[in-house]
Amino acid sequence: DIAYISGQFVEQSDAKVSIEDRGFQFGDGIYEVIKLYDGKLFKADEHFKRLLNSADLIRLKVKHTLEELKEIALKVIDKNINNQSGSLYIQVTRGVSPRNHSFNPDLDPTIIMYLLPPQPFPEELWESGVNAVTLLDTRWSYCNIKTTNLLPNILANQEAKDQGAFEGFFVSPDNIVIEGTSSNVFIVKDGIVITHPITNKLLSGITREIVLELAEESFEAKEETYTVEELYDADEVFITSTTKEVLGVIEIDGRKVNDGKIGPITRRLHSSYRKYRE
Ligand code: PDD
Asked: Which end of the chain is more exposed for a tag (fewer CB within 10 A), N or C?
Protein backbone atom coordinates (compact mmCIF):
# COMPACT_ATOMS: atom_id res chain seq x y z
CA ASP A 1 0.00 0.00 0.00
CA ILE A 2 1.33 3.40 -0.99
CA ALA A 3 0.79 6.42 1.24
CA TYR A 4 1.47 10.11 0.68
CA ILE A 5 3.39 12.00 3.32
CA SER A 6 4.43 15.64 2.91
CA GLY A 7 5.54 15.55 -0.71
CA GLN A 8 6.42 11.87 -1.05
CA PHE A 9 4.71 8.66 -2.02
CA VAL A 10 6.11 5.80 0.05
CA GLU A 11 5.24 2.28 1.16
CA GLN A 12 2.71 2.77 3.98
CA SER A 13 4.93 1.05 6.57
CA ASP A 14 7.71 3.54 5.73
CA ALA A 15 5.48 6.60 6.23
CA LYS A 16 6.64 8.00 9.58
CA VAL A 17 6.15 11.25 11.48
CA SER A 18 8.45 12.86 14.04
CA ILE A 19 7.83 12.45 17.79
CA GLU A 20 7.70 16.25 17.76
CA ASP A 21 4.89 16.42 15.25
CA ARG A 22 2.27 18.66 16.84
CA GLY A 23 -0.45 16.32 15.63
CA PHE A 24 1.10 13.54 17.74
CA GLN A 25 1.81 15.69 20.81
CA PHE A 26 -1.20 17.99 20.91
CA GLY A 27 -3.76 16.57 18.51
CA ASP A 28 -3.01 19.81 16.66
CA GLY A 29 -4.44 18.82 13.31
CA ILE A 30 -7.49 18.23 11.18
CA TYR A 31 -8.72 15.38 9.00
CA GLU A 32 -11.24 14.13 6.46
CA VAL A 33 -12.52 10.71 5.40
CA ILE A 34 -13.74 10.48 1.79
CA LYS A 35 -15.52 7.37 0.55
CA LEU A 36 -14.37 5.65 -2.61
CA TYR A 37 -16.95 4.06 -4.87
CA ASP A 38 -15.41 2.04 -7.72
CA GLY A 39 -12.14 3.89 -7.29
CA LYS A 40 -13.77 7.33 -7.46
CA LEU A 41 -13.88 9.86 -4.63
CA PHE A 42 -17.42 10.73 -3.57
CA LYS A 43 -17.98 14.47 -2.88
CA ALA A 44 -14.25 15.24 -2.99
CA ASP A 45 -14.73 19.00 -3.39
CA GLU A 46 -17.05 19.22 -0.38
CA HIS A 47 -14.59 17.27 1.81
CA PHE A 48 -11.56 19.28 0.71
CA LYS A 49 -13.52 22.52 1.25
CA ARG A 50 -14.41 21.40 4.76
CA LEU A 51 -10.75 20.45 5.35
CA LEU A 52 -9.57 23.91 4.29
CA ASN A 53 -12.27 25.50 6.44
CA SER A 54 -11.19 23.43 9.48
CA ALA A 55 -7.61 24.57 8.74
CA ASP A 56 -8.68 28.24 8.74
CA LEU A 57 -10.58 27.79 12.00
CA ILE A 58 -7.44 26.48 13.77
CA ARG A 59 -5.22 29.07 12.01
CA LEU A 60 -3.32 26.40 10.09
CA LYS A 61 -2.05 27.52 6.70
CA VAL A 62 -2.27 24.67 4.19
CA LYS A 63 0.14 25.53 1.40
CA HIS A 64 -1.88 23.65 -1.21
CA THR A 65 -4.99 24.67 -3.09
CA LEU A 66 -8.07 22.47 -3.17
CA GLU A 67 -7.10 21.41 -6.72
CA GLU A 68 -3.57 20.49 -5.65
CA LEU A 69 -4.86 18.44 -2.73
CA LYS A 70 -7.26 16.65 -5.06
CA GLU A 71 -4.41 15.86 -7.47
CA ILE A 72 -2.42 14.28 -4.65
CA ALA A 73 -5.48 12.26 -3.64
CA LEU A 74 -5.94 10.96 -7.19
CA LYS A 75 -2.28 9.91 -7.30
CA VAL A 76 -2.67 7.98 -4.04
CA ILE A 77 -5.66 6.16 -5.53
CA ASP A 78 -3.78 5.47 -8.79
CA LYS A 79 -0.91 3.93 -6.87
CA ASN A 80 -3.20 1.54 -4.98
CA ILE A 81 -5.21 -0.12 -7.73
CA ASN A 82 -5.99 -3.20 -5.62
CA ASN A 83 -7.63 -1.30 -2.79
CA GLN A 84 -10.18 1.07 -4.23
CA SER A 85 -13.43 0.41 -2.37
CA GLY A 86 -12.62 1.78 1.08
CA SER A 87 -12.02 5.43 1.92
CA LEU A 88 -9.29 8.00 1.57
CA TYR A 89 -7.99 9.31 4.89
CA ILE A 90 -6.47 12.78 4.89
CA GLN A 91 -4.78 14.38 7.87
CA VAL A 92 -3.01 17.71 8.11
CA THR A 93 -1.15 18.66 11.28
CA ARG A 94 0.49 21.94 12.15
CA GLY A 95 3.89 20.31 11.63
CA VAL A 96 7.05 19.55 13.58
CA SER A 97 8.63 21.90 16.12
CA PRO A 98 10.20 21.78 19.61
CA ARG A 99 7.40 21.14 22.11
CA ASN A 100 5.62 24.34 23.05
CA HIS A 101 1.91 25.09 23.44
CA SER A 102 2.04 28.20 21.29
CA PHE A 103 2.85 27.69 17.63
CA ASN A 104 4.85 29.28 14.87
CA PRO A 105 2.27 30.29 12.24
CA ASP A 106 4.73 29.53 9.43
CA LEU A 107 5.45 25.88 10.20
CA ASP A 108 5.34 23.45 7.31
CA PRO A 109 2.22 21.34 7.89
CA THR A 110 2.51 17.56 7.83
CA ILE A 111 0.10 16.20 5.21
CA ILE A 112 -0.73 12.53 4.97
CA MET A 113 -3.14 10.69 2.68
CA TYR A 114 -3.69 6.95 2.48
CA LEU A 115 -6.46 4.47 1.82
CA LEU A 116 -8.49 2.84 4.58
CA PRO A 117 -10.04 -0.58 3.91
CA PRO A 118 -13.86 -0.79 3.71
CA GLN A 119 -15.72 -0.49 7.07
CA PRO A 120 -15.59 -3.81 8.88
CA PHE A 121 -19.35 -3.80 9.49
CA PRO A 122 -21.44 -6.17 7.41
CA GLU A 123 -23.91 -5.14 4.72
CA GLU A 124 -26.75 -6.77 6.77
CA LEU A 125 -26.59 -3.92 9.32
CA TRP A 126 -28.30 -1.69 6.76
CA GLU A 127 -31.14 -4.23 6.76
CA SER A 128 -31.31 -5.02 10.47
CA GLY A 129 -30.44 -1.60 11.93
CA VAL A 130 -28.27 -0.90 14.95
CA ASN A 131 -28.67 0.15 18.58
CA ALA A 132 -27.42 3.29 20.29
CA VAL A 133 -27.04 4.77 23.76
CA THR A 134 -27.14 8.42 24.84
CA LEU A 135 -24.09 9.93 26.53
CA LEU A 136 -23.35 13.32 28.03
CA ASP A 137 -21.60 15.60 25.54
CA THR A 138 -18.41 16.63 27.31
CA ARG A 139 -16.78 18.16 24.25
CA TRP A 140 -15.69 21.74 23.60
CA SER A 141 -17.35 24.64 21.76
CA TYR A 142 -15.83 24.02 18.32
CA CYS A 143 -17.29 20.69 17.26
CA ASN A 144 -17.74 22.19 13.79
CA ILE A 145 -13.96 21.76 13.31
CA LYS A 146 -13.03 18.27 12.08
CA THR A 147 -10.03 18.02 14.38
CA THR A 148 -7.89 14.96 15.08
CA ASN A 149 -8.34 15.85 18.76
CA LEU A 150 -10.92 13.08 19.12
CA LEU A 151 -10.42 11.99 22.73
CA PRO A 152 -14.01 12.74 23.85
CA ASN A 153 -15.35 11.03 20.72
CA ILE A 154 -13.27 7.89 21.13
CA LEU A 155 -14.04 7.63 24.85
CA ALA A 156 -17.74 8.04 24.17
CA ASN A 157 -17.61 5.55 21.30
CA GLN A 158 -15.83 3.02 23.51
CA GLU A 159 -18.36 3.63 26.29
CA ALA A 160 -21.14 2.88 23.78
CA LYS A 161 -19.36 -0.32 22.67
CA ASP A 162 -18.83 -1.33 26.33
CA GLN A 163 -22.59 -0.92 26.84
CA GLY A 164 -23.17 -3.20 23.85
CA ALA A 165 -24.24 -0.39 21.51
CA PHE A 166 -23.15 0.39 17.96
CA GLU A 167 -23.14 4.18 18.37
CA GLY A 168 -23.25 6.74 21.17
CA PHE A 169 -25.40 9.87 20.83
CA PHE A 170 -24.02 13.02 22.44
CA VAL A 171 -26.63 14.80 24.53
CA SER A 172 -26.10 18.33 25.89
CA PRO A 173 -26.57 19.11 29.60
CA ASP A 174 -29.96 20.62 28.68
CA ASN A 175 -31.10 17.33 27.14
CA ILE A 176 -30.72 18.15 23.41
CA VAL A 177 -29.53 15.39 21.08
CA ILE A 178 -26.47 16.82 19.28
CA GLU A 179 -24.85 14.15 17.06
CA GLY A 180 -23.26 10.70 17.19
CA THR A 181 -19.64 10.01 18.20
CA SER A 182 -18.85 9.78 14.47
CA SER A 183 -22.19 10.41 12.75
CA ASN A 184 -25.13 12.80 12.54
CA VAL A 185 -28.48 11.78 14.02
CA PHE A 186 -31.92 12.16 12.44
CA ILE A 187 -35.38 11.41 13.78
CA VAL A 188 -38.67 11.04 11.92
CA LYS A 189 -41.90 12.15 13.65
CA ASP A 190 -45.32 12.19 11.95
CA GLY A 191 -43.64 11.96 8.54
CA ILE A 192 -41.27 14.88 9.18
CA VAL A 193 -37.50 14.30 8.99
CA ILE A 194 -35.70 16.27 11.72
CA THR A 195 -32.01 16.84 12.49
CA HIS A 196 -30.05 19.26 14.69
CA PRO A 197 -29.29 22.56 12.87
CA ILE A 198 -25.70 23.40 11.94
CA THR A 199 -24.00 25.23 14.81
CA ASN A 200 -20.57 25.04 16.44
CA LYS A 201 -21.90 22.16 18.59
CA LEU A 202 -21.64 19.54 15.83
CA LEU A 203 -19.90 18.61 12.61
CA SER A 204 -21.59 19.70 9.42
CA GLY A 205 -21.76 16.23 7.89
CA ILE A 206 -21.56 15.97 4.12
CA THR A 207 -23.86 12.93 4.20
CA ARG A 208 -26.26 14.88 6.45
CA GLU A 209 -26.47 17.62 3.81
CA ILE A 210 -27.18 15.18 0.96
CA VAL A 211 -29.78 13.30 3.01
CA LEU A 212 -31.55 16.54 3.93
CA GLU A 213 -31.78 17.41 0.22
CA LEU A 214 -33.08 13.93 -0.63
CA ALA A 215 -35.58 14.12 2.23
CA GLU A 216 -36.92 17.46 0.99
CA GLU A 217 -37.68 15.91 -2.40
CA SER A 218 -40.21 13.45 -0.96
CA PHE A 219 -41.00 14.45 2.63
CA GLU A 220 -40.98 17.44 4.90
CA ALA A 221 -37.57 18.07 6.48
CA LYS A 222 -36.58 20.43 9.30
CA GLU A 223 -33.31 21.44 10.93
CA GLU A 224 -34.43 21.78 14.52
CA THR A 225 -33.23 20.68 17.92
CA TYR A 226 -35.02 17.84 19.72
CA THR A 227 -34.72 16.38 23.19
CA VAL A 228 -33.89 12.87 24.39
CA GLU A 229 -37.61 12.37 25.15
CA GLU A 230 -38.44 13.26 21.53
CA LEU A 231 -35.72 10.85 20.41
CA TYR A 232 -37.31 8.03 22.48
CA ASP A 233 -40.71 9.00 21.13
CA ALA A 234 -39.63 9.18 17.46
CA ASP A 235 -41.26 7.01 14.79
CA GLU A 236 -37.86 6.38 13.19
CA VAL A 237 -34.25 7.17 13.99
CA PHE A 238 -31.22 6.92 11.72
CA ILE A 239 -27.62 8.06 11.55
CA THR A 240 -25.59 9.34 8.62
CA SER A 241 -21.87 9.42 7.83
CA THR A 242 -19.53 8.94 4.90
CA THR A 243 -18.94 5.29 5.75
CA LYS A 244 -22.33 4.45 7.33
CA GLU A 245 -24.43 6.20 4.64
CA VAL A 246 -28.00 6.08 6.05
CA LEU A 247 -28.13 3.53 8.86
CA GLY A 248 -31.34 2.75 10.76
CA VAL A 249 -31.34 2.79 14.57
CA ILE A 250 -33.85 0.37 16.09
CA GLU A 251 -33.08 0.63 19.80
CA ILE A 252 -31.95 3.52 22.03
CA ASP A 253 -31.00 3.09 25.69
CA GLY A 254 -32.74 -0.28 25.62
CA ARG A 255 -36.03 1.17 24.24
CA LYS A 256 -37.26 -0.11 20.90
CA VAL A 257 -37.82 2.33 18.04
CA ASN A 258 -40.63 1.38 15.62
CA ASP A 259 -40.96 -2.05 17.31
CA GLY A 260 -37.31 -2.77 16.57
CA LYS A 261 -37.65 -2.50 12.78
CA ILE A 262 -36.17 0.01 10.35
CA GLY A 263 -38.90 2.45 9.34
CA PRO A 264 -40.17 3.14 5.81
CA ILE A 265 -38.73 6.68 5.52
CA THR A 266 -35.27 5.48 6.63
CA ARG A 267 -35.48 2.74 3.99
CA ARG A 268 -36.53 5.18 1.29
CA LEU A 269 -33.71 7.59 2.18
CA HIS A 270 -31.11 4.84 2.22
CA SER A 271 -32.13 3.63 -1.20
CA SER A 272 -32.29 7.17 -2.60
CA TYR A 273 -28.82 7.81 -1.13
CA ARG A 274 -27.50 4.69 -2.86
CA LYS A 275 -29.07 5.77 -6.14
CA TYR A 276 -27.70 9.29 -5.73
CA ARG A 277 -24.12 8.16 -5.24
CA GLU A 278 -24.17 5.72 -8.19
N1 PDD B 1 -16.86 10.83 10.89
N2 PDD B 1 -20.15 13.92 13.24
C3 PDD B 1 -18.94 13.49 13.64
C4 PDD B 1 -18.47 13.80 15.03
C5 PDD B 1 -18.14 12.74 12.73
O6 PDD B 1 -16.92 12.31 13.12
C7 PDD B 1 -18.63 12.46 11.43
C8 PDD B 1 -17.84 11.71 10.41
C9 PDD B 1 -19.91 12.94 11.07
C10 PDD B 1 -20.51 12.70 9.70
O11 PDD B 1 -19.87 13.47 8.70
P12 PDD B 1 -19.78 13.02 7.17
O13 PDD B 1 -21.16 12.74 6.72
O14 PDD B 1 -19.20 14.20 6.49
O15 PDD B 1 -18.91 11.79 7.11
C16 PDD B 1 -20.63 13.68 12.01
C17 PDD B 1 -15.92 10.21 9.98
C18 PDD B 1 -16.56 9.33 8.97
C19 PDD B 1 -14.85 9.54 10.80
O20 PDD B 1 -14.38 10.17 11.74
O21 PDD B 1 -14.47 8.41 10.50
From this structure: C
ipTM of the complex: 0.98
Q: Are residues 138 and 46 in the same domain?
A: no
Residue to mutate (ligand 1; options 184, 213, 238; most atoms within 8 A of CB)? 184
* Total number of domains in the chain: 2
Per-residue pLDDT reduced to its tens digit, 224-278 = 999 999 999 999 999 999 999 999 999 999 999 999 999 999 999 999 999 999 8
Question: Which ligand 1 atom minimizes the distance to the CA of 153?
Answer: 4
241 CB under 6 A from ligand 1? yes
| pTM recorded for the entire structure | 0.96
Q: Is the CB of residue 54 below 6 angstroms from any atom belonging to ligand 1?
A: no
pLDDT for 82 equals: 80
Last residue of a domain, one of 62, 88, 116: 116
Whether 236 and 272 map to the same domain: the answer is yes
Q: How far apart are CA 66 and CA 58, in angstroms?
A: 17
Q: Given the CA of residue 143, which atom of ligand 1 is nearest to it?
A: 4
* Residues 93 and 146 grouped into a single domain: no
Q: In which domain, by residue range, is 181 found?
A: 125-277
